[in-house]
Amino acid sequence: MTFQDRNEAAERLAEALSGYGDAHPLVLAIPRGGVPMGKILADRLGGELDVVLVRKLGAPFDREMAVGAVDESGWVYVTPYAARVGADASYLNQERNEQLALLRRRREQYTPGRRARALDGRTVIVVDDGLATGATMIAALHAVRQQHPARLVCAVPVAAPASLAEVRRYADEVVCLRSPANFSAVGEHYREFPQVEDAEVVACLEGDSGQRGEGRLAGRE
């Protein structure tokens, strides 16, 4: 299965998650690629949209390769192979501090003048456009779990099998449409996979009223 773009992937995820249409879920998207998808999910499920801010910790000689991830509280998830690729404690601490500074800037940019929505007792769906190492999703799920949601769901269109297995430990349910054995990169499973810019993230969040209903899936009114 190859998705045309993030919109198609989100529509397919919405169908798979249609059972939550009566729960008024809070959809928490991981910026940036997960945010336009999160908006579609919130529309279709009659829920609300917000972001969960986490950042990948890049490897010393390949910043695109995740050796861990950090959430807004400063909690860090470290992958089992981090030390093998040169990410020692000193490096991880420096990378953590740099990414925390970026998270603070993003919080000010994405949700100025308001706090994140309360999660206690809610059904929360955390969405991203795919899982490669799974590090950022694990950090996101950990951050959400600390706020005591009633049910915590991870939703992704595609994932590496090993990463999917690891992520299952952190969620009550994982919804993944495809997990191919030959997985190499998230973008390879989309025909169109443009970079999502900060302006699009802000527009999605500003356009979310939190009072959705007409966009729900048929049969979930």
From TrEMBL:
Gene Ontology annotations of biological process type: methylation
Domain Phosphoribosyltransferase residues, every copy: 9-189
One Pfam family hit: Pribosyltran
Claim: Methyltransferase is one of the keywords in the record: yes
InterPro entries documented for this protein: PRTase-like, PRTase_dom
Keywords of this entry: Methyltransferase, Transferase
Catalytic activity, EC: 2.1.1.77
GO MF annotations in UniProt: protein-L-isoaspartate (D-aspartate) O-methyltransferase activity
Entries under SUPFAM superfamilies matching the protein: PRTase-like
UniProt name for this protein: Protein-L-isoaspartate O-methyltransferase
Organism in which the protein naturally occurs: Cupriavidus basilensis
